[in-house]
Amino acid sequence: MSGLLRLVPDEPEPAHDLAVAPGRTRSRPRWAADPLDELAEELGAVCAAAVHPDEIAAVLEADGLTGEQIAERYGRKDAFELAAELYARVPRSHPEPAPSPDPWRVRPGQFLLRSLVFTLPGFGYALGSPLMGGGRDRFGLPAGTGALVASALVAWAWNQALAHRAYVRLAAGGRPAAGRCLGVGAPLGALLATGAALALPAPAGALAFACGQLLYLAAATVLLVLGRERLLLLALLPVAAGGAAALVTPPPPALGAALLLASAGGALLAAGYEIARTRREEAQPAAAPSPRPVTSLPYGLFGLGCGVLTTVAALGDVLAGHRGGAGGPAVLALTLSMGAAEWLLYRCRSMARSALAASTTHARLLLRAARVLTLCVAGYLAALTVLTLAAGALWPGTPQPDAVRLPALLALGAVLWSGLLLQAYGIAWTPALLCLGAAGAETTALALRTTAPATGQLVVCTGAAAALLAVATALLGRITTHR
Fold first, then answer.
1. How far apart are CA 353 and CA 483, in angstroms?
2. Where would I find the beta strands (DSSP E) of 186-295?
3. Quick check: 95 and 43 in contact, CB under 8 A?
4. Alpha-carbon gap, residue 407 to 468, rounded angstroms
5. pLDDT tens digit string along 30-63?
6. Where are the domains of the chain?
7. How far is CA 183 from CA 159, 221, 276, 277, in A?
8. Cα–chain-centroid distance for residue 134?
9. Share of the chain above pLDDT 90, in %
10. Which of 189, 211, 301, 455 pairs with 152 at a CA distance of 20 to 30 A?
11. Is 480 exposed, middle or buried (CB count within 10 Å of its CB: 0-12, 13-18, 19+)?
12. How many helices (DSSP H) and strands (DSSP E) are in the chain?
């Protein structure tokens, strides 16, 4: 029987067996549960996330555990010894922080709306063609085309710079600050562009059409910066209806002029109303000093370069004495693709942000950034190809782009998209200078007639696009870019 009793593990030893020598730490009986396990479970999250035992010791001391309590409860001499054992017992586990909201995740619908407001003004040229009926110039273009193009280029450059300036003021001082900037800058830009139109010979009808176009561009800049695309779309409905009807039968000249006036006047009224609304809003304190106006200069130069490149794509064949070019569908496809371009800019920034979170080395980040950039550029060029082929099929009397014109247009699209991407990251001078250089090279080749316009566009824009994409890849591959 005595032998059987010795096999029972829960039977305590006699009291005299628990005695310890004076000055030594009392150890817990073998049959008692170790309270260190309970403490490790209680502080599991702290111990798992600690990178050094001292972090756990700091928590123990913050909880009020004294050396005497630690020796009595856990049989350890101090907080550091206890923390070291807890650190050894609990496996390391560093949970990833909760994902922060992605500021670049947007819905495609709003960019479809912007595609419409970029494209519908093109119907105005069909309705305004009777106003250009003052004969032909030496290139076979309607008289006044030079004045129309020159004023449009000035307005394009000015409004690009003005939009950047207004967006900066919007971020720094809210809508009242942006409204003040637009209220001064938009009329001034229209005045300067009107002067460019008057500097070249043109019949009265062409000048009237040019002035209407300039006023519309100024009003559209105001509405787009203030986020009022729907108002702009409503103002464009008369021109859209007239343009759709013109595809079936040309409307009477008087009706076409009335529809043009209705759209331009509606846009001007809407812009004036929105500027007045911003002045009634409460002004916000400036978050930061507003930068000097010269900081918007490269954005205007980029707009000028893009305008020249687009003009050469549209009129290069005619200016070079060729016929049967696909300039009209090319410009229509470019304007239609701007909505997709803007959406892909947002997607690129969102995907680049995700690439940064998934990368552990600089080389991996650079590789992922190059992959993101390739996907976004390929997506935009695919959309531009579809739109170009569709526009060529709908444009009367125009052949489909051939094996040179289509790649040339895609190269131009890559220049525009990559330049806008760099601007979105605050890199302004590089795309401005490259686009101006490409525009100058194409214009010189066209003037000297050293090559066909489409071939020159293909060579020049391919080189410019490659340079811009190389800069963009290096930019997205830097960690500081995404902060």
1. 9
2. none
3. no
4. 17
5. 434 678 888 888 888 888 888 889 989 999 888 8
6. 2-89, 107-291, 300-483
7. 13, 11, 9, 12
8. 43
9. 48
10. 455
11. exposed
12. 18, 0
Q: Which of left, alpha, beta for 321 (phi over 0: left; psi -120 to 50: alpha)? A: left
Judge contact between 400 and 392, C-beta under 8 A: yes
State the pLDDT at residue 9: 38
Over the stretch 340-352, which tens digit does the pLDDT of each residue have?
Answer: 999 999 999 999 9
**pLDDT tens figures, 300-309:** 999 999 999 9
Q: What is the pLDDT of residues 458-473, one digit of tens each?
A: 999 999 999 999 999 9
Q: Provide the Cα torsion 105, 108, 113, 118; round to 10°.
A: 90
Contact 15, 58 (CB under 8 A): no
Task: Give which of 472, 353, 426 is closest to 168, Cα–Cα.
Answer: 426
**197 contact partners, CB below 8 Å, separation of at least 6:** 147, 148, 150, 151, 207, 210, 211, 214
Output 183-190 pairs: Cβ under 8 A, ≥24 positions apart.
Answer: 183/275, 183/279, 185/158, 186/159, 186/162, 186/218, 186/219, 186/221, 186/222, 186/271, 187/218, 189/154, 189/155, 189/158, 189/159, 189/162, 189/218, 189/221, 190/155, 190/214, 190/215, 190/217, 190/218
Residues in the chain: 483
Distance of CA 405 to the CA centre of its chain: 28
Q: Is the dihedral of CA 337, 461, 161, 428 positive or negative?
A: positive
Tokens for 101, please give them: 């909201």
- Residue 142 pairs in a beta bridge with 136
